[in-house]
Amino acid sequence: MNKELINYLEQFSAEQRIMQFNRVLENRTRYITVALEDIYLSQNASAVLRTSECFGLQDVHIIENKYEYNINPDVVMGSSKWLNLIKYNNSEDNTLEAIKNIKNRGYRVVATTPHEGDVSLEQFDIEKGKVALFFGTEVTGLSDLMLENADEFLKIPMYGFTESFNISVSASIILQHLSYKLRSSAVKWQLSDTEKEELKLEWLKKSVKSSSMLIDKFLSKKKNN
Question: pLDDT tens for residues 3-45?
Fold first, then answer.
């Protein structure tokens, strides 16, 4: 059904847009994902979303304990439209809920912070398994609860007096480096054909004018045939 619906909606989309979808889908990955814990400055979190999308990530997890995240349209520049945002805000402890869900998806939970037993970015083994990178709030960093439940710790080497980068800068540095290492490796990091189909259909729905009406028309015609 997805293939038929995709073929139908493609008739209402420009050829250049379809080619762009196909190109992006070939570079999309769920091997690396990002989790943002209680980021209260919308411009920083939005910058991380934009960076994640630029480097081909599909999923971003947003943990809302004290602070609700609101997209900053001037920063995100439409990138959130193409991402899957998974929010955690209904539990008494959304951090634990997020960690449990992410681990159940087969990810290594990696805290991006200097810590005993941490690994520098250059030494981090990207081929050991899927990676969920956790970034914390600007002032206090990741919560103690998150750190207690992390599988690994990753740090960016620092050579100046300042102890840390801004969160959006940290995410950019880490994602650029790990994305390059991943795409240079033998790891099968691409999406499955089924995932590509599902995403392409969602993107077509978002980009084709009056897509809901067109889909209803398609389904009605199919039902009557």
Answer: 999 999 999 999 999 999 999 999 999 999 999 998 877 788 8
Rounded CA separation 8/12 (Å): 8
Q: Give the containing element (helix H, strand E) for 87.
A: strand 84-88
CB 57 within 8 A of CB 84: no
- Fold of the CATH domain 28-216: Alpha/beta knot (3.40.1280)
Say what the pTM is.
0.93
* 177/68 Cα distance (integer angstroms): 29
Tokens representing 37? 């814990």
For the four alpha carbons of 202, 204, 205 and 207, in that order, the dihedral sign comes to: positive
CA distance linking residue 92 with residue 67, whole number of Å:
14
The Cα 131–Cα 152 span in angstroms is 10
CA gyration radius, the chain: 19
Instruction: Give the Cα separation of 120 and 48 in Å (integer).
Output: 20
What element of type H or E holds 45?
A: helix 42-54
Q: How many helices (H) and strands (E) does the chain have?
A: 9, 7
Task: Tell me the one-letter amino acid at 25.
Answer: L
- CA atoms of 14 and 22, how far apart (whole Å): 13
- Write the DSSP symbol of residue 192: P
DSSP three-state, residue 158:
coil
